[in-house]
Design goal:
This is Glycerol-3-phosphate cytidylyltransferase. This protein is an alpha/beta fold and 141 residues long. It contains six helices and five strands, in the order βαβααβαβαβα. The chain has a five-stranded parallel beta sheet with strand order 3-2-1-4-5. Helix 5 links the parallel strand 4 and strand 5. It is globular. The structure holds [cytidine-5'-phosphate] glycerylphosphoric acid ester (C2G).
Length: 141
């Protein structure tokens, strides 16, 4: 059984996230997602719209995902790889070459997958704010 592990905030779940998880699962048989805790998000300078429990619940509903664990620190990755007997750590291309992932190459494979262009959580937030701001309605007509 080939075990895959990926990390992320996964806020305002969108098709870019789903396509990443689908392709990550295609690399093996079992996909673990380490989703950032609210406290760790603060450390990353992020404030998620949905809290940890909600983001975890949404990820657990995705057919490609077999297990969701918390991501609480930058430094837990090596322990995660060992504890969950991970063969491959997968991340989107925006992390390509990041030493926090490259340093894992002595204990597992590290694979970066192309990001899905044209969608991001921050873009969704910005567009919703703009729409709300200039028309007062939540949805663009
Ligand atoms: N992603 C993607 N395409 C997008 C948006 C995101 O492939 N259009 C990928 C990212 O590359 C990442 C995953 O989806 O692999 C989750 O994205 P985020 O929730 O933004 O995660 P991030 O803030 O990058 O957290 O320790 C690592 C961090 O926790 C990663």
């Amino acid at each position: 059984m080939k075990r895959i592990l990926t990390y992320g905030t996964y806020d305002l779940l969108h098709y870019g996230h789903i396509r990443l998880l689908k392709r990550a699962k295609e690399l093996g048989d079992y996909l673990i997602v380490a989703v950032s805790s609210d406290e760790f998000n603060a450390e990353k300078g992020k404030r998620a719209y949905h809290n940890f429990e909600t983001r975890k619940e949404m990820l657990e509903a995705i057919r490609y995902v077999d297990l969701v664990i918390p991501e609480s620190t930058w430094d837990q990755k090596r322990d995660d790889v060992s504890r969950y007997e991970v063969d491959v750590v997968v991340m989107g291309g925006d992390w390509e070459g990041d030493p926090r992932f490259e340093c894992l190459r002595d204990c597992c494979d590290v694979v970066y997958l192309d990001r899905t262009p044209g969608v991001s959580t921050s873009q969704i937030k910005e567009e919703l704010n703009l729409t709300t701001g200039d028309t007062g309605n939540l949805f663009r007509h």
